[in-house]
Inverse folding.
């Protein structure tokens, strides 16, 4: 017992000593009077358990034609899980309680919301192919979009166009846009100016929005127009309708329309190929034009290997502009040439040489001789002025006749050259045309042949497409070297043409021309 008592007392003493030691010395205490380990342990004990707030949920409801279409509970700040885009024809979009269009898929939810579908006129199940081509079967994407263009396109898209025949003073019943105009005016989609529809006038953005916002989502219409000019091109008009109809939704509905003036590198190519009305005028379905020159209503184009008109390019010395048309560099001359050729070319299937002969006969038979300017051998730069003189007044001298033939031949795709030189053994100043065909140089002299007709009534002379060998009887001199060799005054081989003035002459005699 004694031993146990001693052991117990010893343990108690040690415990008291240890308590005193730790309470007074604290060898690992920090500046705040507690050891880091003890504090960490205390903190761990004192830390409350983490808790999470459950976010609020809101109900988003969609009403379509007065019936519940869809409803979803969405956590605050989150987005709808489903893409609410009805495929029904005529659906324009969703509007909120204030009547504003909303893109509900991109709008986070912070309150209960009700959206109502806006329903417009129903479109055809396949609205592709609604945009009309021009009369010649081309699309002309760079031409301005007119009131007639948009009216016809929209009318063709509607499943049930409005009915009505309001009086329109500037449209006859056989007008291309008569049905479209009377229908859309009756339905309130387009407005008249007095009693006039103004079919060929450009349609302004304000009018475009007024019409299309009743048929499509107004915000989408506004977005497309926001970076455009006040008027659109036909290509932009096709792009607008294509985007409003859903683009890819109608892309696979049928074969793409082919227009040789809408190449694949144009921004509007996809829209036009889908929205443009189908046409087999230029090639059978699935085919394209063969490469080469093509004249359409008097205007010259060149078809490339892909079946499209080249733009901003050249073929030989023939230059083609942004619209694909050949241009001489003078707009007035281009218009005159196109007008003449459109009358001479009876069919686009006509042989090109036949076209050339028709142009030659026109120059020969429909113009009167009138004395005028003379030009030195190999002189250039006079062609446009003389061509304008002949094609506008139907009068001129041999240089005018040559320039007129030069302009028409180039308008048919021939790399023609107007030549100033001399003719006959008496060396009369003269102008004619050269065209190289299949490596052979040919002479075309409509004025000289016409002289035989008019002055001598000789109708067996043919000066269309002569080689210089067969034309040797007329002694054409076309170069400075030839003029110098012939001893013509004012020309030497060493110096070329001297600066001497050619005398102006009147009507040529003895078959020589001036």
């Amino acid at each position: 017992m004694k031993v146990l008592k001693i052991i117990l007392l010893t343990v108690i003493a040690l415990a008291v000593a240890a308590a005193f030691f730790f309470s007074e010395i604290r060898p690992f205490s920090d500046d705040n009077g507690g050891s880091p380990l003890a504090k960490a342990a205390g903190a761990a004990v004192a830390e409350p358990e983490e808790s999470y707030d459950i976010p609020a949920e809101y109900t988003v409801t969609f009403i379509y034609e007065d019936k519940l279409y869809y409803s979803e509970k969405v956590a605050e700040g989150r987005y709808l899980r489903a893409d609410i885009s009805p495929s029904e024809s005529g659906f324009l979009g969703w509007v909120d309680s204030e009547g504003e269009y909303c893109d509900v898929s991109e709008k986070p939810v912070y309150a209960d919301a009700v959206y109502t579908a806006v329903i417009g006129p129903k479109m055809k199940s396949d609205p592709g192919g609604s945009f009309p081509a021009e009369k010649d079967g081309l699309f002309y994407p760079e031409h301005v979009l007119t009131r007639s263009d948009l009216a016809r396109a929209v009318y063709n898209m509607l499943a049930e166009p409005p009915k009505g025949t309001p009086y329109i003073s500037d449209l006859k019943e056989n007008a291309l846009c008569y049905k479209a105009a009377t229908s859309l005016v009756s339905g309130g989609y387009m407005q008249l100016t007095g009693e006039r529809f103004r079919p060929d006038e450009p349609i302004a953005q304000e009018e475009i929005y007024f019409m299309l916002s009743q048929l499509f989502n107004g915000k989408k219409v506004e977005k497309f127009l926001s970076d455009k000019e006040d008027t659109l091109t036909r290509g932009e008009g096709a792009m607008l309708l294509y985007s409003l109809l859903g683009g890819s939704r109608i892309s696979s509905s049928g074969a793409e329309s082919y227009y040789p003036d809408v190449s694949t590198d144009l921004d509007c190519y996809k829209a036009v190929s889908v929205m443009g009305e189908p046409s087999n005028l230029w090639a059978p379905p699935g085919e394209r034009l063969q490469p080469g020159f093509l004249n359409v209503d008097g205007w010259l184009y060149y078809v490339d290997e892909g079946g499209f008109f080249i733009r901003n390019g050249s073929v030989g010395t023939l230059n083609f502009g942004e619209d694909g048309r050949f241009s001489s560099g003078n707009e007035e001359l281009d218009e005159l040439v196109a007008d003449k050729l459109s009358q001479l070319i009876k069919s686009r299937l006509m042989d090109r040489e036949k076209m050339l002969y028709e142009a030659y006969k026109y120059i020969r038979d429909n113009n009167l001789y009138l004395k005028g300017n003379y030009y030195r051998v190999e002189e250039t730069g006079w062609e446009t002025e003389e061509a304008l003189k002949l094609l506008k007044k139907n009068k001129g001298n041999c240089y005018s006749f040559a320039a007129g033939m030069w302009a028409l031949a180039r308008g048919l795709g021939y790399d023609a050259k107007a030549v100033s030189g001399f003719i006959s053994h008496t060396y009369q100043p003269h102008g004619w045309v050269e065209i190289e065909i299949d490596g052979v140089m040919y002479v075309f002299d409509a004025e000289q042949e016409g002289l035989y007709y008019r002055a001598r009534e000789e109708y067996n002379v043919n000066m269309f497409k002569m080689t210089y060998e067969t034309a040797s009887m007329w002694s054409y001199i076309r170069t400075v070297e030839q003029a110098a060799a012939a001893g013509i005054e004012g020309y030497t081989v060493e110096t070329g043409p001297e600066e001497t003035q050619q005398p102006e002459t009147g009507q040529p005699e003895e078959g020589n021309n001036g």
Observations:
- The CA atoms of residues 87 and 417 lie 62 Å apart.
- Residues 1-46, 495-513 have pLDDT under 50 and may be disordered.
- The first helix runs from residue 2 to 24.
- The radius of gyration is 43 Å.
